[in-house]
Amino acid sequence: MIQAINYIEQSLRDSDGIQVTNPATGELIASIRSWSVADVSGAIDRADRLRPAWAAMTAQERATILLKWYNLILANEDVLAEVVTVEAGKPLAEALAEVRYGAAYVQWYAEEGKRAYGEVIPSFARDRRVLTLRQPVGTCTAITPWNFPVAMITRKVAPALAAGCSIVVKPAEATPLSALVLEQLAIRAGVPEGLFAVTPSHHSAAVGQLFCTHPKVRKLSFTGSTRVGKILMAQAADQVLRLSLELGGNAPLIVMDDADLDRAVRGVMDAKFRNAGQTCVCANRILVHDGVHDAFVEKLAAAVSALRVGNGLLADTQIGPLISPKEAQRVSQLVDDAVARGATVAAQAQGAPAESAFAAPRVVTGVTPDMDLASGEIFGPVAPVIRFASEEEAIALANDTPYGLAAYLFTGDMGRAWRMMEALEYGMVAINDGRLSSEVAPFGGVKQSGFGREGSAHGLMEYMEIKYAMMGL
Ligand SMILES: NC(=O)c1ccc[n+]([C@@H]2O[C@H](COP(=O)([O-])OP(=O)(O)OC[C@H]3O[C@@H](n4cnc5c(N)ncnc54)[C@H](O)[C@@H]3O)[C@@H](O)[C@H]2O)c1
Ligand SMILES: N[C@@H](CC=O)C(=O)O
């Protein structure tokens, strides 16, 4: 049994609760308490009671505790990384990178909380003074997915705590263990127990409804699918609840005929195959100019064929399993459907065991926009290649989706890069690079990829209200 389970209090274990399994082996790792809706409601009440004392502290006092939490996460990074690998499947090196990435949000917001400045505004009258101040939103809730079980929590909880809010988090059922370890480390750092509460539950839909309707909740931050985001948005309308929605994507990665092809291939390997393709910002459609299509596909095929698939705990694994056998089956069906409609599997990595949660990394050529492989979110290690003939066609293809999270562009012409970046209807555009996530930058989408930003100074403002104060002299 992994060392990390020792971090989880005995009281949180329950043999009839949520069964957490290792997607690489199907083995049961732990069984933990599933919170009832009434229990979660109690957690919200408790978080709300603890909030005023936390909000009354100075930003520096909160920062001191958050920095202790940051240091504790780093001191336990190997344990946390192992938990992430065992419950989510991603290779250890990637899991460690996620833990450090997640910790970076805690450090960033510990510091940024001290800069939640107000304004003194030139007045509209000689005898009046106009100013603004920032105040914490209040008691918050969050619902998070399984694909980044550490970072998707810290990038909500750190700004919430830094702003002076309390927050109750329901993690994904597949990955509650890293969330519980994060909570324990926060308590050890000095965050009052219950101010940041983790409430894993089998009752996702009912807890979601509670988060939208509980009278003490002032905000819900959700990361997950567009389907569930829409349900929550409808439920939140009744009490005009403040929302942040970080939803699904269908990222285009455009390779122009003037691109450095080796660099573009490296970009696809980063943007497509991170976490076995289970990332909201994963390149979902590789759009390649006719003039370089064959040369590019040859290089990409060589790189994908060389990927090593296996259990994430093994040192040389580059691609772990998907989150469940059902997901692997869904991804294979998408490829089969595209092939039946005329596409070709141009390359495939070896080593993915059949009938399991593993999916073979593949390059599929001859894909057209109407195929399900191109129009939906793949969430697996498959790179569909679509040809185009002009800059205008590339932009039209890229924007022809209800999603608008991330886009990638490879070109050697800086004028074209600027022009195309502006024309892409996406919240984030990476030029000549396949990685854009960072705690210093505003992460978020447009269209049906949601609204709100996480990371950077903008992420703190998601947890603060502006109060306008006017004083007559
Ligand atoms: N934009 C981003 O920052 C971002 C980041 C990571 C993942 N995602 C998206 O998340 C999705 C993958 O994650 P997933 O499969 O866990 O998504 P999901 O929407 O199925 O689940 C996300 C969370 O919502 C909960 N949930 C499920 N049904 C619910 C309901 N009716 N009411 C309330 N909560 C409910 C789940 O238990 C889980 O905790 C992908 O679409 C991916 O693009 C987006
Ligand atoms: N991968 C994203 C989160 C979405 O999956 C990130 O880089 O933060």
TrEMBL record:
Family: Belongs to the aldehyde dehydrogenase family.
CDD domains given in the database record: ALDH_F5_SSADH_GabD
Keyword entries, A-Z: Oxidoreductase, Plasmid
This protein's name: NAD-dependent succinate-semialdehyde dehydrogenase
PANTHER family, alphabetized: SUCCINATE-SEMIALDEHYDE DEHYDROGENASE, MITOCHONDRIAL
Location of the active site: E246
All residue ranges annotated as the Aldehyde dehydrogenase domain in the record: 16-468
